[in-house]
Amino acid sequence: MMRIKEVAELAGVSIRTLRHYDEIGLLKPAEVSPSGYRHYSEENLKTLQQILFFKELGFPLQKIKEIMESPSFDRLGALELQRHLLIEKQNRLGNMIALIEKTIQSEKEGMKMSSEEKFAGFRFDSNPYAREAREKWGDQAVDAAEAKMARLDGDEKLALADEMNEIYRELAAIRHKDPRAQEAQTAIRKWFDFLNRHFGDYTPEAFKGLGQMYIEDSRFTKNIDQFGPGLAAFMAAAMAEFANQTHQ
């Protein structure tokens, strides 16, 4: 157990902040001594860490409380989504810093920047995955998927991440089996249906092409194989077989 002062110093927050979290029911200490001292457990520290991740992403405290009290809340799923969102934020900040440095240099050296260069760091549509998807399947499908994602609130995005991760975990559990087997094809159909429900209309051919990207692009392979080594290759093979069977 840790006392409130120790937790505040460890997490870089104030004692007043921790007391406020207790008062609003966001983070209740594991124990309160008869003299009123708050004591925090290891589980409390995990909860505090997740609260601070949400705060960094701009979630208000009341929304964080609602999310974490939801019966469907999954800590691992939340962490995975938070990682994704923080990486996106990191990339945007990196672009902004690079733009600032370029602007400072142009001011010092009297270099002229084009209008496009002046605002390049403010464009948030430069995700390499989105660019590749647009090239493969066209703007309409990607625009529709992005618009749908933009309409989701924090709870809905967490639920979406939970559903996606559950499919990945199911596939990872059978990744050593034949991707042509019925069990593998039943599981990969869940992925096909998930993509079509949430990210636009995927034809079997586009689905197969996406699977190829999983093994041709090391970024996809690395992310997918976090659920189990070899999962990306297994999914690519299963997706290709799914497309072939669908065309028969």
From TrEMBL:
CDD domains from the UniProt entry: HTH_TipAL-Mta
Residue ranges annotated for the HTH merR-type domain, each copy included: 1-70
Alphabetical list of SUPFAM superfamilies matching this protein: Antibiotic binding domain of TipA-like multidrug resistance regulators, Putative DNA-binding domain
Molecular function terms, GO-annotated: DNA binding; DNA-binding transcription factor activity
Naturally occurring in which organism (per UniProt): Heyndrickxia coagulans
Top-level division of the source organism's lineage: Bacteria
Keyword Transcription: yes
Protein name, entry field: MerR family transcriptional regulator
Keyword field: Activator, DNA-binding, Transcription, Transcription regulation
